[in-house]
Design a protein that fits this description.
Number of strands: 4
Distance between the termini: 94 Å
Radius of gyration: 43 Å
Order of helices and strands: HHHHHHHEEEE
Strand order of the largest sheet: 1-4
Largest sheet: 2 strands, antiparallel
Strand content: 5-15%
Number of helices: 7
Structural class: mainly alpha
Helix content: 40-55%
Oligomer: single chain
């Protein structure tokens, strides 16, 4: 209702103000017809209506930004849902802060497992050293001797922390049958695969899974970005 009154007042005020200016401009041209012989006359006559229209459009946009009265706000404001929280369910602020800090200090479990496993393979078999080494300058005999040492150390490291077992307990090269409800994360089908299971094929790799893991306990002093510390000999 108030917006309707404001709209009517703006319209009436615009008509009175700029209508009067238009009348004065018309009178000036009437008493001096020579003004119509150039651009001054049309400009005097056309300016008040044009400016009045612009003012009216601007004034209409102003009223859209006017906040409603408190009574209107109270009428349209939805009632907030009251949530009652028991004192026991809300931990003290000190405990909340401590929990947030703890999340930032403790790395993710998968990150810890990666660092520990790669660190163990490096420590026991120098696996990272071997993979980072450029072996092109060496002959096959030299590479074979190095691989034997890497193999021995990495195999011992895996036996130390993981219980490994083949996914399919069959000899490689033997014929196996894949049931209809096989798990694609455990068995990967290769070759000419078409139709629906069950499938029969040749086992090319038995796959591996671990049955147990014995990774050492993580301490807060360790860093998750260090797979193996640098070693400096002091003489």
């Amino acid at each position: 209702m108030k917006n309707s009154n404001l709209h009517r007042n703006i319209l009436v005020s615009s008509l009175l103000c700029f209508g009067s200016l238009t009348g004065l401009a018309g009178a000036a041209v009437y008493f001096d017809p020579a003004l119509m012989n150039n651009w001054i006359g049309p400009a005097i006559l056309g300016s008040p209506p044009a400016v009045g229209l612009i003012f009216y459009l601007i004034a209409r946009s102003w009223q859209k930004g006017i906040a409603p009265s408190p009574d209107v706000e109270k009428a349209i404001e939805p009632e907030e849902e009251k949530i009652i929280t028991s004192p026991e369910a809300t931990p003290p602020p000190s405990e909340i802060m401590a929990g947030d800090d703890l999340k930032h200090e403790i790395p993710h479990a998968s990150e810890i497992a990666i660092v520990q496993t790669l660190g163990l393979l490096q420590r026991e078999g120098r696996l990272i050293d071997f993979l980072q080494e450029d072996i092109e300058p060496y002959d096959d005999a030299q590479i074979g001797a190095a691989v034997r040492e890497v193999h021995r150390g990495c195999r011992a490291a895996l036996k130390e922390v993981f219980g490994l077992s083949p996914v399919l307990k069959a000899a490689e090269g033997s014929q196996v049958e894949i049931e209809e409800d096989f798990d694609p994360t455990r068995i990967k089908l290769i070759g000419n695969v078409h139709g629906n299971p069950p499938f029969k094929g040749t086992l090319r790799h038995c796959g591996w899974k671990f049955t147990e893991a014995h990774l050492p306990e993580w301490t807060a002093k360790e860093k998750t970005d260090v797979l193996a510390p640098a070693e400096v000999e002091i003489s």
